[in-house]
Amino acid sequence: MPNPVSRHSKSRRDKRKANWKAYIPANFAKCSNPDCGQPVLPHRVCKACGNYKGNSVIKVKE
Length: 62
Description:
13% of the residues lie in helices and 13% in strands. By secondary structure, the protein is of the alpha+beta class. It has a domain of 35 residues. The longest helix has 8 residues.
C-alpha cells in the first residue's frame, strides 16, 4: 500500500475529526418512575423527578 506523499497539517486533521459525534443520535429512554415518564438519557438521574432505577436519589425543586 502506498504511503502519502505529503503530510497533512494538524488543522486539516482536526477539522476532519471534529464532527464525527454529530452523526450519532442520542438514545433516550423513559423514566422508570410511572408517574413521570419523561425522556432521560440512559444511566442518568431524571431531572424532572430525581429518580434513578426506581429510587429517589435527589430532591427536585418545584
